[in-house]
Specification:
GO terms for molecular function: transferase activity. This is Glycosyl transferase family 2. Keywords: Transferase. By secondary structure, the protein is of the alpha/beta class. It has one domain: Alpha-Beta Complex (Spore Coat Polysaccharide Biosynthesis Protein SpsA, Chain A). The protein is about 40% helix and about 15% strand. The protein has nine helices and seven strands, in the order αβαβαβαβαβαβααβα. A seven-stranded mixed β-sheet has the order 3-2-1-4-6-5-7, with helices on both faces. α6 runs parallel beside α9 and α8 packs parallel to α9. About 45% of the residues are buried.
Length: about 260
């Protein structure tokens, strides 16, 4: 891990809903790739053994009483991080699509921005391919958000993100829970609050479980919903105070951990 990344006290948050088949391997891979970082799995109202499997793999687990969606799970993770004195949060999905070996690159870039996106379709070859309406939506959304951020963004819908600096307390209070809010709307919130956003290249791997749908009808629905989500985010009135750095925490709350 680079010196910049290792100097940051970061928490890796894994939102998980009924991911008992994949979350254990994901947690173990994260701990192998980033042994100095703590992993928090937010079990989002899971009705299977997600929480148990995550604990057995070495993660802290926060269990929500009912399903809130990725945005709600991540807001809980951000609040946990702020209350426990972490400097940064990295979101890693439970299904294995995000490569934990790329976490240090995201954290290293936090010295230059408040939010760092692990972006597909960037400066290097990527085996992950998206075609048709879904890809068109990603291109349009990224172009609009690039104009807002005043920097090139190629993957506005990526869930692989590092958050720190001024954005961490903003997300702890205002992280959106609506559909696509955890990606598109969260970036609009950060930018409206005066935070900075950038990206680093990242790979997207096949899911360990389940089959993502790329059928034409569902892709067209995605295109419509993504555009509508961006429109709402842009016209919505946000009562956001100017983003400031979080206050220092003298002694983080100690909680049980299975890390040895």
């Amino acid at each position: 891990m680079s010196s910049n990344a290792s100097a940051v006290r970061a928490l890796i948050v894994v939102p998980a809903w009924n991911e008992q088949l994949t979350v254990g391997e994901t947690v173990r891979e994260i701990r192998d790739a980033t042994p100095d970082l703590q992993v928090l799995v937010v079990s989002d109202g899971s009705t299977d053994h997600t929480a148990l499997v995550a604990r057995d793999a070495g993660a802290l687990v926060l269990e929500l009483p009912f399903n809130l969606g990725v945005g709600g799970a991540m807001r809980a993770g951000f609040r946990y991080a702020v209350r426990h004195g972490y400097d940064a949060v990295v979101q890693v999905d439970a299904d294995g699509q995000h490569d934990p070996s790329e976490v240090p690159a995201l954290l290293a870039k936090l010295g230059e921005a408040d939010v760092v996106i692990g972006a597909r379709f960037s400066d290097r070859s990527d085996e992950y391919r998206v075609r048709g309406p879904r890809r068109w939506a990603m291109v349009v959304l990224s172009k609009v958000l690039s104009m807002l951020a005043k920097t090139k963004l190629t993957d506005a819908t990526s869930g692989f993100k590092a958050t720190g600096g001024r954005a961490l307390p903003v997300f702890a209070e205002h992280y959106p829970v609506e559909y696509l809010g955890d990606t598109i709307e969260s970036l609009v919130i950060a930018l409206r609050a005066g935070c900075t956003v950038t990206q680093v290249p990242a790979r997207m791997r096949p899911r360990r479980g389940g089959n993502p749908s790329h059928r034409p009808i569902k892709s067209a629905i995605y295109l419509f919903r993504a555009g509508f989500a961006l429109l709402l985010a842009l016209i919505r009135r946000w009562d956001l105070p100017p983003a400031t750095l979080p206050a220092p925490v003298e002694a983080p709350i100690k909680e049980g951990s299975s890390r040895e």
